Amino acid sequence: MKGVNLILDRVRFGPAGFPIDAPKERAFGYLREIGLSGMEYQAVRRVPTNEKELKKLGDEARENDIILTLHAPYAINLSAETEEKIRGSINRLLSAAKAAKAMGAGHVTFHPGYYLRRSRDEALRIAISALKELRETMISEGIDVELGPETMGKPSQLGSLDDVLEMAKSVDGVSPTVDFAHLHVREGGIIKSEEDYRSILNKIEKELGDINGLVVHFTEVEATSSGYGERMHHELGSGYGPDFRPLAKIMAENGLKWFVVSESPILERDSVKMKEIYESFLKNK
Question: Which residues form the Xylose isomerase-like TIM barrel domain (predicted)?
Fold first, then answer.
């Protein structure tokens, strides 16, 4: 986790992608107007390569006090069964890191991969080896952005909380993207109370030493019919859970500085709701 670059001055809220209630050309001004201060750029299908356009986008974000992170392509599997597929995944993640640097985004979220027919330990070892190689390339090319393996919502995916913490401990410049909805459904609906959140955060703090500066994904989520694994994202108040309020309370009481990314279907609308919930706890401190 050494060499982390995402330094936050306060809690920041923003959507996973351009806002739904404003045209893209005035996205950052609109986010500022509604009280938000971040956005996760979605490069999940294709990584943009026009450095001039990326720099312009980053400049517009900074002018409106919007921090940027970037979500790398879904087509990444650092524990793939063939060297060719691992190599392709490394290259796609490197391209995402280059785009992030060009736009001034300090953190690149990515899906680590799958266990496939391997044991958990073997899949994790292969992914960590790929991350170390990638970080060496990034350092040699002066790409100073952190990599964020995301906690994943399906038990078949490499990306349990233990997995991403081990990646962060093993590779400098790696800091997890903590998706609480994914953690919730991966384990069969484990987040039911404030204490459940505290247990997760205590584990992160114990392993990494600090929980400030985290990139956090949040939405409510519907599980598969088995009760284990992610089926569909829902907006806040859907009843599926997890409940954001206990987490907001912990954030306010402990002065935590996170970037909270709304992965709700209504993006910035739920970002605003989360910010309002958080601020209601700040007033009651």
Answer: 30-265
Tell me which residue has tokens 């952005």.
Answer: 145
**Could you give all domains of the chain from N- to C-terminal order, each with its CATH number?**
12-283 (3.20.20.150)
Question: Tokens 């694994």 identify what position?
Answer: 229
What is the CB neighbour count within 10 angstroms for residue 63?
Answer: 11
CA–CA separation, 150 and 71 (whole Å): 10
- Return the minimum-mean-pLDDT range out of 99-103, 126-130, 169-173, 229-233: 229-233
Q: What is the pLDDT of residue 3?
A: 41
Taking Cα atoms as reference points, which of 141, 146, 49 lies closest to residue 102? 49
- In eight-state DSSP terms, residue 111 is -
Residue type, 257: K
Tokens of 155: 């038990």
Question: How many whole angstroms separate alpha carbon 7 and alpha carbon 10?
Answer: 9
Lookup: tokens for 68: 């940027």
Token pair recorded at residue 114: 């799958």
Residue 105, C-beta contacts closer than 8 angstroms, at least 6 positions apart: 41, 58, 67, 68, 69, 70, 99, 145
Tell me the one-letter amino acid at 12.
R
- State pLDDT tens for residues 4-56: 457 789 999 999 999 999 999 999 999 999 999 999 999 999 999 999 999 99
Can you read off the two tokens belonging to residue 112?
A: 């680590």
Separation of alpha carbons 10 and 64, rounded Å: 15
Count of alpha carbons within 13 angstroms of residue 260, beta-carbon side: 26
**CB neighbours (10 Å) of residue 141?**
12
Q: How far apart, in Å, are the Cα atoms of 171 and each of 27, 111, 132, 163, 257? A: 35, 16, 6, 12, 23
231-240 pLDDT, tens digit per residue, is 899 999 999 9
- Report pLDDT for 225: 80
